[in-house]
Structures are given as structure tokens and as C-alpha cells.
């Protein structure tokens, strides 16, 4: 910057400062002329008067001027939470974001919050800030209601994560540790939630290492890494060869493992006899005994008279439908060609 430019900037700054002081002086003075203090209203005094010049009525320290061209009054400056009559009473101490609410109490507007006696603009985590007072956090944030203004942006403290809506700073919690919000758990471990302490979501269970959550099996033969991954929803099941199954002598039926009983052996329920899917319509537990409904083959196994052939039926219907359609197309072509 050249010397001429520097001098010009300084002169402009001085002019602006003098003009601002003049405006400020005008703002704190009324339009009412006076010779002595007695000419002014309550809580005001005569300012700028001398033997030859009238002065203007000005409010005493701690009072704020409310004026127009024909009227003025001096109202006490109020703090946040104090009773008020006009917005200016609140704004002189708490800033432009303060106002006198419908209950006649000095409050901060919706875009701000009270901080050290002033109404500070509320900024979410990641938004621009001028100081810590801008970094407002909603109730429920552990450790206080403010974030930190660092490099002009609101940030959370050390070892903290912000909530999804960026209005809270939450401590990072591991599985089994106490918590107050889901975000504290998910910040460290996916597929978790807070229930006084961090636990896995309903569809998940703790992995073998007890530090992560894995998908819980809901059907037999689904892949697994630990017994807990199977037994959460499949009663008495185990992880065998990286697949959910049952211990020796048991088999899976719906969502549980039941003892395997073959034809001719005693039983308590049908499930014990149905150790293979092909037996579902061919074996029952009758008279406390697993019995073949359609007799036995030569090797002693049950005859299979009924099978789940719904897929085969659908395939058959599909083939028949295609053949009929093909015949109709041939007839149409023969008719016109």
C-alpha cells in the first residue's frame, strides 16, 4: 500500500469515527431543550448547556432513552430475565438479539441464547463462529452446553463426536460402557444403540471379540463366527463349521434345535421326528412314537408319498402356458399367411 493510499484510509477512518460519535451522541439525547436539570423528565439531566446555550435532556447512567420528535422517556437498562417494557431496555445490555417478550421479560430471540449476560447467535457444530459463546449445544449434551470455537468453526471436545443434527457433542462409548444417547455408541461401533449402556441393535449380536456387532442368524445354515450369533434367535443352536446348526443328536426345526428321533423311537412332538424336510408330510409323532404315515421301504425308512412340489407345479404350469401360447401363435400365422 502506497503512502497516499494509507493516508486516505486513515482520513476515512477518522471521518467515519467522528460521524459515528455524532450519531451516538444524537441517539442518547432527546429532542427536548433545557436550561437546567429541572427542565428534564425523571432520570434525565440537562446536557450541553451553558450560560448562552440551551442543552438537551439526556438519560442518567443506567437508563436508556426512548424518543421521538415530541416525546421522550428514560427507562432502566435491564438484563436477561429482568422485567421490561421496551426492547431497547434489554438490548442495551444484552445486544441486538435481545427483546422484551410477550411476558414483559428480557429474553433472547430464537436464533440466539444467553451467554455471559448477552444474547449470542447460535451456531451448530461445523458452522462459523466468533467465539465459544456461539457454539450452542442442546440440552442432554454431556459436560456442558457449549462447544469450542476453533479456527472460526464450532467443534466438539477431545474424544467427542457430534450428533447427526450437529446440535450435540457426545462422548464416544464402547460396547458395555454407560451412555445417554445412541450417537455415543454408534460413534465407535456401528449397529448399536444406548440402553443405559451401549448394546447391539436387535438384529445384531456381539462378535467373538466383544467389541463389534455382527448380524444375528435367523435361519439354520446361515454363516456365523460364534455361537452367540446363532443362539440369539435360533434356540440352543451353535456355530459349527461357520454355519449355524445344532449339536450332535439334534436338528434344526423352525427357530430351535430339537432332539432327533427316527421312525420307531419315542417322541414328545412332531418336530423331533422331522429331521429332514422330505419327512414333513410323511412322518408324525403318534401315540408318543415317530411313525411313517405311508409305511416303510425295504431299508426301514419311511415311504415318501407327499413332497413340497409347489416349485415343480409352478414350472409345469409355466411350460403348459408357453406351449399353449406357441400353438395360438402358429394358428394365427397360418390364418393370415
UniProtKB/TrEMBL annotation:
Domain EB: residue ranges: 73-119, 166-208, 256-295
Signal peptide: 1-20
Alphabetical list of Pfam families matching this protein: EB
Keywords: Signal
The protein, known as: EB domain-containing protein
Organism whose genome encodes this protein: Zophobas morio
Taxonomic lineage from the root: Eukaryota, Metazoa, Ecdysozoa, Arthropoda, Hexapoda
